[in-house]
Each structure stands twice: as C-alpha cells, then as structure tokens.
Amino acid sequence: MAEVRVAVLGASGWMGKVHTMAYQTYPHFLGTSGGTARVVALVAHNPAADPDLAQRAPGARILADWREAVAAPDIDLIDICLPDSLHYVVAKAALLAGKHVFCEKPLAETAAEARELADLARARGLITRVGHGFPRNPVHDLAKEIIDSGEIGEITLFKGCQHIDVFGDPLAPFMWRADGKLAPTGIVGDTGSHVFSFMDFLVGRVTSLVADNFVATSRRPVVEGLAYGEQVTLRGDEKWADVTNPDGSMLLCRFANGARGLVDFSRVATGRKFVQTYEIYGTKGSIAYAYDEVNRLRFYSSADPVGRRGYREIDVGPENTNFRAFLPLPNFSLGYNESKIIEAAEVIRSVTTKTPMWPTFDNGHHICQIVDACMQSSERRGWVDIPAV
Ligand SMILES: NC(=O)c1ccc[n+]([C@@H]2O[C@H](COP(=O)([O-])OP(=O)(O)OC[C@H]3O[C@@H](n4cnc5c(N)ncnc54)[C@H](O)[C@@H]3O)[C@@H](O)[C@H]2O)c1
Fold it and tell me: Which numbered atom of ligand 1 lies nearest the CA of 65?
C-alpha cells in the first residue's frame, strides 16, 4: 500500500490543526484503499509558542522554516495552511522541488499567479488540490448527481451567499485578514471563493460579472493575542489600523452555459454567525441548500403530478458512500471537519493513483479569475469578462 509523506505548513493555525487531524483520521472512516498518509513534518512560525504541536502528529519533526520542508527529500506532499499571501510563493517553490501540493484557499492572490501554478503543476505531472472543502460534504455530491442527471433541466439561475459576523462589531480587532498587504482581496478571496467553489463544482465556468465590493468599518483597533472576531474592551491607548480590503460584496454573473448568477457575501452580517446557502433553478426543477441544515437538500421537480408538487427535503444518508463511512443512520449530520477528512482522503488517493480530483489548481485558477474580476469590476464600476483560460 502506498504511503504519502506529508508536511503541514502553518501547523499551529486553525487549518493546520484540521489538516493534521484529517490525515491521521481518514483511515478510521474511509479506509486505506487509496493509500496512507504519514505526517512527517509540522512547520510552525513559532513552535515554542505551541506546546502541544508535537503531540498532534507523533513522530513528525518540527520545523520553523517552510523552505526546509520544501527541500526535504523525504516529503511527497506539501500542505499549505499559511496566510493567503504565502500561498503562491510556497506552492511555486514546492512544485519546482517536485512536490505534490495541497493548498488552502484561495490558491493565490491573483489569477495570473494561480495560472502559473496550474501550468507548472501540469507540466511537471504533479497532483494539486485546493482546500475548498465545503462542496465535499456528501449533500453536494447528491446536488451534482441531480444536476448531471438532467432532473432539473438546464440551469437558468444560481443564487448563493455566505456571511459571517466576525467583523460586524467595529471594535473587533484588526488582523491579517483585514490587511490588504497580507490579504489583498479581503473577503472576496476569503469567503467569496467558497461561494465561487460551489459555482465551479455545480454550475460551471463564469464568463463575466459585475461586482460592488465595500468596506463597512474602515479602521480597527490593533490588539495582540486575540483570535479572529474576538471582542475588545478598549483601554484607550490602542493603535488603530486601516482596513485595506473588502468586508463584503454583491455581484451578478453570467455562466458559460447561459445561466445567470446572483451572489453576495460578507464578514459584517451582525448576528449571522455563519450562513451559507445556494438555490439552483432549472427548466425542470430546482434544488436548495442551507448550511443550517447541512445534510439536507431541497428538491423540486416539475415532473411531479400537478397537485402534488412542492419541495422535498432529502436528508443525505448512508446511501452515499462518503456518509456511510462516518454514520450508519441519516440525519446524524456530517459537519465541517468531516468534509476536511474526506478532502484529505481524496488528496492522498489522488497522489497515489496520479488521478487529479476536483478542485485541482485549474479549478483554483478559475476561482481566482472570478475573485480578480470582482476586484476589477468594483474598481471600474462595470462588467468584466473572464477569459476562457
Ligand atoms: N477551507 C476553509 O474552510 C478555510 C477555513 C479557514 C481558513 N482557510 C484558509 O487557510 C489558510 C490559513 O488560515 P487559518 O484560519 O488557519 O489562519 P491561522 O492564522 O489560524 O493560521 C495560519 C498559521 O500560519 C502561521 N504562519 C504565518 N506565517 C508563517 C510562516 N512564514 N512560516 C510558518 N508558519 C507561518 C501562523 O503563525 C499561523 O499559525 C488561509 O489561507 C485561509 O484562507 C480555509
């Protein structure tokens, strides 16, 4: 059985912990027919500040510089859980060193960078994956199955949104996510890219769009040691920093298949801790999903007899392989971390079988094209075309 040796970069952060867990957990649920993973290196900015780091992957060596992992001959897969601004430079170095790469989203800060990475990986025959884990919940496999079977006909309209309220409070502290130097596209690359990943997975390519990005709170207090979205009791002597990237956006788009899209997302939806929805309308029916009922798909079919038409609520369950692996009964709910576990298993299977699986760097590139187009459109206040490659 093939073993993939993994280095997790940014291992003390949220995603770093999730990915490290996922490589070690997936065999319990999803088996090892796609190969096994061994986390051989954990890279953290400041390992001394994370006393539990070594415990999360026993036997892994602890490194403070990602370059050491990229250069190490005993590592097959570089897993990038670093802030957005490092994705391109680290992924490029890893691909040039002949490593397969799993990179958290967004793949890069610009579509040009993402394209370069996708081309480089293809030229070198390396496996790539972007961390768009939400669509890997089995409920979205069901959505895709319904769409691909033609049961809702030709897609005419996609409506999607994702909102959080971590920056709803003007006193929520400044952090790298609000810094245009470290995260130039702000919420567009951060959260918009999740909605765009559903669009890419379920509807297809976007050919043009018009977007209106906005900053809701232009300055935030700088308070060290607080996590994303934590509240601050001001002492009065804090430094303040300018928010230099978007807090939210609304956009209209056109897809290559003729469908239209209506999308909004933000980090300032006070009171909405996490809302993520889509509705997909077609000529013969429609589907609807909301994260609040994360394993449930609503399905309407015009093929139902008149007088019996209406939305069915389908709870994804053990009929779906990736659900049955975790739970024998429907409606016990798979959540965020299970989607990341499925993702880790698929990454390893991709590497061992040399078979790319959605979302590769090519998908990540298209998602970055949509992000770029949002930034350009809002700046120019007009429609922007997205090239086919
Ligand atoms: N797919 C998802 O659902 C999802 C969710 C959250 C975050 N993300 C993405 O994951 C990435 C990481 O986000 P996060 O929330 O885990 O952030 P985080 O701030 O919790 O973690 C980032 C870690 O990287 C470390 N780091 C920074 N520079 C470093 C360097 N040069 N060398 C080594 N370590 C360094 C930091 O110390 C920190 O521990 C981001 O790109 C983000 O967009 C994806």
Answer: 32
Closest protein CA for atom 39 of ligand 1: 13
User: Which atom of ligand 1 lies closest to the CA of 43?
Assistant: 33
In the chain, which residues have pLDDT < 50?
none
Residue with tokens 């999740």: 194
Question: Could you read off the pLDDT of 106-120 as tens digits, one per residue?
Answer: 999 999 999 999 999
pLDDT at site 1: 55
Q: What is the DSSP string of 25-57?
A: HHHHHH-STT-EEEEEEEE-S-GGG-TTGGGGS
Beta strands in the chain (DSSP E): 3-9, 36-43, 61-63, 77-80, 100-103, 128-130, 155-163, 206-214, 219-222, 239-242, 248-255, 260-266, 275-282, 285-290, 296-301, 312-315, 384-385
Distance CA 244, CA 105 (A): 20
14 lines ligand 1 (CB under 6 A): yes
Distance 91 CA to ligand 1 centre (A): 14
Of 78, 86, 95, 88, give the one whose Cα is nearest residue 42: 78
Read off the DSSP letter of residue 272. -
Determine the distance separating the centroid of ligand 1 and the alpha carbon of 205, expressed in angstroms. 28
Q: Which tokens sit at 88?
A: 């391109």
Q: pTM of the entire structure?
A: 0.95
Nearest in space to 234 (alpha carbons), one of 145, 148, 188, 173: 173
75 vs 94: CA distance, rounded Å? 10
Phi/psi of residue 249, nearest 5 degrees:
-160, 155
Which of 8, 21, 43, 45, when mutated, tests ligand 1's pocket best, judged by the most ligand atoms within 8 Å of its CB? Answer: 45
| Residue-wise pLDDT tens digits, 38-85 | 999 999 999 999 999 999 999 999 999 999 999 999 999 999 999 888
Distance 6 CA to ligand 1 centre (A): 17
Question: Which neighbouring-strand residues pair with 241?
Answer: 220
